[in-house]
Structures are given as C-alpha cells and as structure tokens.
Amino acid sequence: MTRTKQKKNSRLRHAEYYDMQCAFDKLYANSKNGKIFASLMDLIASDENIKLAYRNIKRNNGSVTPGVDGKTIEDVEKLSETEYLRIMRAKFRWYKPKAVRRVEIPKPDGRMRPLGIPSIWDRLVQQCIL
C-alpha cells in the first residue's frame, strides 16, 4: 500500500470516528452537482467537527511548534473538553487571526525559505473550516 493511500485511509478513519464522514460526503456530492452553499457555520462549529480538528492537529508534528502567542497543542491538551469546545465556539463568533510567526528554513540547495507558523488556535480554526 502506498504512503498516500495510507494517509487517505487514516483521514477517513478519523472522520468516521466523529460521524463526520456522511456530512463530508454529502457536501462533496452537492458541490459536484453545482450547489452553492449559503451557510456552513453550523457544520463548522459543531462539536464533532471541532473535536475532529483537535484530533487532526494533535497528530501533526508541527503542533508542538509555538506560534506568536507561544502556545502549542500541549497547552490546549490541559483544557477539559468542555472548556476547549467553549473557546472554539467563541472564536467562531468573531474570528480574527493572530499574526503569523516567521522563521526561515533551509532549502536543499542551501538557500533559505520563509515559513509562517500560525498560533495553535488559528490552526484549529483553520482545520475546522477545512
């Protein structure tokens, strides 16, 4: 099995864990049929989607890299599930992303390239929207 195939299957497993796969499949089918979506906020801000976002970000190696606020997934882990959901729902009421931390990382040819590191809360919001 190829690495890409393995990643795809693990993403499906996570979506199914929170019963989100059916909703995602329906959205995909509707978009393929040309449907224009007027409001997706109920789905984006659902408890299941917020939990799925946390699960997906937590397994990403970059989640332990702090953004401009110095917070990582480890800080979010310290919160109860109820508190985490409350904070995320509040972010959706009036979302304004923080500045992105800029670092330069080396490229294979020796040059450097800029890399933007968003805050952990911004990554979680972005994952919910994704």
- Give the mean pLDDT: 87
Helical region count? 7
- Strand tally, please? 2
Helix and strand pattern: HHHHHHEEH
Strand content: 5-15%
What structural class do you assign from the helix and strand content?
mainly alpha
Calculate the terminal CA-CA distance, rounded to whole Å.
Answer: 26 Å
Q: Detail the poorly predicted runs.
A: 1-6
Please list the strands of the largest sheet in the order they lie side by side. Answer: 1-2
Radius of gyration: 17 Å
Task: Describe this entry's structure for a reader.
This protein has helices spanning 3-17, 21-32, 41-44, 47-58, 73-77, 81-93, 120-129, and strands at 101-106, 112-117. It has seven helices and two strands, in the order H-H-H-H-H-H-E-E-H. The model is unreliable at 1-6 (pLDDT under 50). Helices cover 55% and strands 9% of the residues. The chain has a two-stranded antiparallel ribbon with strand order 1-2. It is globular. The chain has one domain (38-129). It is mainly alpha-helical and 130 residues long. Strand 1 and strand 2 (112-117) form a beta hairpin.
